[in-house]
User: Fold these one by one.
Assistant:
Number 1:
Amino acid sequence: MSKVSSARGALLSARPNSEGAAGSKAATAFYRQVMRTLSEAHIPFLVGGTYAFVHYTGIARVTKDLDLFVRRDSLEQAMSAIEQLGYRTEITHPHFLGKAYAGSKFIDVIFSSGNGSCAVDDWWFQHAPPGWLLGLPVRFCPIEEMIWSKAYVMERERYDGHDVAHLIRVGTWLDWDRLMARFGENWRVLFAHLVLFGFVYPGERDKVPASVLETLSERLRNDTAPRDTNLCRGTLLSRSQYLHDVHELGFTDARVVPFGSMTREQTDLWTRAIEDEQPVEKKAGH
């Protein structure tokens, strides 16, 4: 683990201009100022998104922002500290996301996931590896929590399954017990990704312990949990592709309490944002 982490840290230190948006001097200054301010104020945060993905895999890609992860009880303090620097902030989606803006540049301040299932808690910080980003010492989101949150992203326009596969491939130190605990009753999502991993990398199937596959296979064979025929968990995977099931066919949305953590108002707000976030050409029907 230390060898992999040091290699990724060296990559980030040696190739700052390969870090997408951080190639812009304005973005770099913005990101550095915010991270330094949070650190000096002793507000715990973790670096996620593209930068954490590069840290683990070495796969560089262009990114338009910086993702910082905080606990929900640190959100107000973090946003206030950023505001005091003179940047505009807003709580874009009250169930998981805040944003800070410096002109066209922005930072996502994340405290859960879009489906409300992956709240940032103490485990994120207890298992966060140290590293460097833009010349600053930081801690990155744990690889297990990255797999957990990315596994649910199966939108028509975005699918993070390839990220999950790449993370599993390099994660020779993965805490599989914790990863399975993270998915809990949604273990089928993890199982699906593990089966697909064996398809993607047939020569590296041993990266997934046989005991993990056996445990999940046994659960599948012996699953006697009550079957709520009116429940749709598809909304945990895509906020748009199962709206027909919920709105037109009468299925119960698994994101909403008591099955999930979100309120109906929060899911409605998250749904309305779909149109706002569509590229111009899609809005025009092209």
Number 2:
Amino acid sequence: MIIQGKELAVSIRAPLAKRAQAVAAKLGRPISLFAIGSTDDYGAYVYLKKEVQAAEKLGIHTQVHPVNAATAVTDFLSLLKQASADQEIDAILIPRPLPPALAQSGFTQFIAPEKDIDGMSNASMGNLFLCKTWEDVQKLRTFVPCTAMAVIRLLDEHHINPQGLQAAVIGRSPTVGKPLAHLLTCRNATVKICHTYTQDLQTALKDMQLICSAAGQTGLLHAGNVPPGSYVIDIATNLDAQNNLCGDCNTTELLQQNCTVSSVPGGVGPVTLACLLENIILSGERKLQENL
């Protein structure tokens, strides 16, 4: 079985334009998104522009500030601090990867948590990892990383309950692997994290019922290392030998052994974008609540 995310993404996005209009009417201005993106990674910057265009279609005001390896850390941090303090900016987005000097600048401590729509600030991450249960997550007033939340919503949409499952997350990035592993724990799965230093992936995955992979390695998961009948959520976006978009899975092999596999493209990706757009709207709605 193939899991698609397009219908879920459409349902999440359907009410957003009206919600944006309602916020704009009360704020007296459109919701404002401030983004910083690295032009050194062409693919990531192009995707950021697509995210911004999607936001603009909802009536959101946007501004994108490009950075690169030549950008001074002081300039980068100054730009971020100004955006965090600016009352006319409601949402901040800084997709990775960033140039090494900027990535290592400790910038996440300067993102205002109420504007941190992809849940990467120190406060957002800290609040998330203090959660023990799913009820705790739902009560958060800070944001959760969009890709990790998109996986949970995709599982729920297809009636895959993580509770009691043996689950593996492949990848330990701070924006996907680690928060996803924690969300699954909050949903009462028993979670194992695998990464580049996992020496025997086949053994590590032997008893797994749910596998979420964000390794970025084409063909990593196949019939030889994935248990038959398992659920596999493919989060990666890679290019195969023919330059076609693919994930970490050999989907053909996995389907032949009765696995349920999310599509790439069309699986987690559309839901992640929908969650991001929803968070932009939420940032404006929460500002209104604070001003009451």
Number 3:
Amino acid sequence: MKQKALLYKGKAKSVFRTDVKGQFIVEFRDDITAFDGGKKDVLKNKGSYNAGVSAFLFEYLEKNGVPTHFVKMLDPRRMVVRELAMIPLEVIVRNVAAGSIVRNYPFKEGTKLSPPIIVIDYKDDARHDPMLNDELIVALKLATAKELAEIKTIALKINALLVKLMAAQGITLVDFKIEFGRSGKTICLGDEISMDSMRLWDKKTNESLDKDVYRFEKGDVMATYNRVAKRITTKAAAAPAKKTAAKVPARKPVKVPAKKPATTKTAAKKAPVKASVPAKKPVKKPVAAKAAAKRAPVKIVAKKAVKKPAGKTPAKTR
């Protein structure tokens, strides 16, 4: 794949055309901004941290039935994506009160929001991304009522998946911002999911693990991004393997001991009972003495076949 002309340059990402129809290259730059671009800096490796986390989460969501624009990574900071007709909406899902919702409404920071609150803003820097309601979105023809309902459904599904994933790593997913686009008639997740677009708190300490570290100068931004990127991608990637390994051994010991001792005792107790059955057979001798004589050996063999598993199977299983 060849990278061609620049198509779009945002605050922290650049989108390029390629020689493959319907696919673009998104470059995650080291630029970081806050407060509508009022605060700007360039921080080494920031682009690669965000790209790596975004790629990991896109793949995770795809595996769980969420369509995204992600195709593959070309290198640590360049991502190949499918072309989408982007919908100019910023969909914010909030699980805990923090940020603007605390400044603008009578919520106390840290309050759990159940069910999660979905807030939708109009993506327009000139207007400072004003909040929209459903009627305004439909009236502005940004999305149909049906599309809007689908966007909200997908957003809540993404939230449920990410909350579970982050919780396993000791992280609280406070809130996050996502964007969607159309691929034909399919609504797909686009843009990115990274420390720039999520608000993350350590479950034990409530330490900020996202761009708030930069916004409010809470510490070393890149040290935080590096630590969180490893925490999410390394630990989360290893988690499924541990679960699978735990399930297999758990089932075998339960099933084997439960069944085998029962069959062993049953075989031992039933053997004498079956031995008494041939005693009744001689009554049939006047009818067919030869047939009775031939059948007797067959039943003796059957008794031995029943006793075989009782002695060998438990030894192999254990």
